[in-house]
Amino acid sequence: MIFNKKLIIVVKICVFIFTFLLISACGQTEKYETIEVFAIETLDNNQNDKGFFEQTGYKIVNAITTIEEGKTHMKSDIKSIEDFYDMEGKFIHTELIHSYANKSKLLLTEEGNTSKETLQEPSTILIAPGSAKNLKLNNMTQEEQDQVKKHVLAFMEKL
User: What is the pLDDT of residues 32-85, one digit of tens each?
Assistant: First the structure.
């Protein structure tokens, strides 16, 4: 009987300490959000005879990347709209992509998922397809960032 009472007290103390550690560790997180608009060349999946990947065209991207990191966890969330074009600038398709990952440093677990949908109309904003090869909009105004964020989040509702 006395042994059971001591065991219960030890378990209660361990639960209290574990809860305290979780609460104190979760309070120290940093969160970063990046809103980007850029164009980049796309490459073939297969190498040519010389061992190079040949350019197949380019894509224009509007993206929101959110990273949250604490002592016990790391989370990433990427939402993007990607318009694909061939070498002549002819539109191919659009991909809506939402990808997230969670990693617990405390429990040593990882989880994540990626959702994609293909559209048949150009959907990115702020970069015109004709002038898009290897271009990144640096120093976007707060208004442009808000516009891109609102635009991308509206498309994510379709996933």
Answer: 999 999 999 999 989 888 888 999 999 999 999 999 998 889 999 999 999 999
Query: How many helices and strands in the chain, by DSSP H and E?
Result: 2, 5
Q: What angle do CA 136, 139, 145 make, to 5 degrees?
A: 90
Residue 104's contacts (CB-CB under 8 Å, 6 or more residues apart) are 72, 73, 110
- This prediction's pTM: 0.78
Whole-angstrom CA distances from 26 to 75, 95, 106, 118, 149 are 13, 35, 11, 37, 27
Contact in structure between 64 and 97 (CB atoms under 8 Å): no
